[in-house]
Amino acid sequence: MEDYQKRVLIEERELDARIAKLSLFLESPTSLPLSAEDKTDLQSQYRAMMTYSHILGTRIAKFTSGYKVPAKPLLTFGEALVRIKEGARLARLGWNDKDMFVFLVQGSVFTVSRPPLLGIFAEGKVVNYRAHIDIHLPDGNISTWAPSNSDALAEDWYVVC
Q: What does the pLDDT look like over 42-70, one tens digit per residue?
């Protein structure tokens, strides 16, 4: 193995250790006092590190014979859906914009008091909203979301801390 290839192996191993530490930190109570801006920055850093680690793993697989790319914390959609139900936010490496992620909105009860429901139901009627998945869009807006065929078959889902 060439020296540069050994360095790539070391780099990937060190990066994956840093990813694990950052992930644990972001999921821990220690991160709660962080400002929203700091959390957003750390989440962006996490996504960039995941992408970089994936690239390193691909490079390593190309220049090593019999080398198995180490397991990454990348998930199938089925695995991602389990994590979404647990309350995690998830995104895909395959999505072009890294400010996008999906999350579960728990079911809730809403008392009709304004349009558009006020034109459909009487004021004061209690409406039960079922749980659903929303997506955070690059412009900061939120929309309801349903997976495309590509999303459902993808194996590049990851937890956004």
A: 988 988 898 898 888 778 877 776 544 44
Burial 33-64 (b: 16+ CB within 10 A, else e): eeeeeeeeebbeebbebbeebbebbebbeeee
Distances (CA, A) of 38 to 34, 90, 160: 6, 19, 14
Could you give the CA distance from residue 85 to residue 76 in angstroms, rounded to a whole number? Answer: 14
Residues 158, 73 contacting (CB under 8 angstroms): yes
Domain ranges of the chain: 3-63, 77-160
Predicted TM-score of the model (pTM) = 0.55
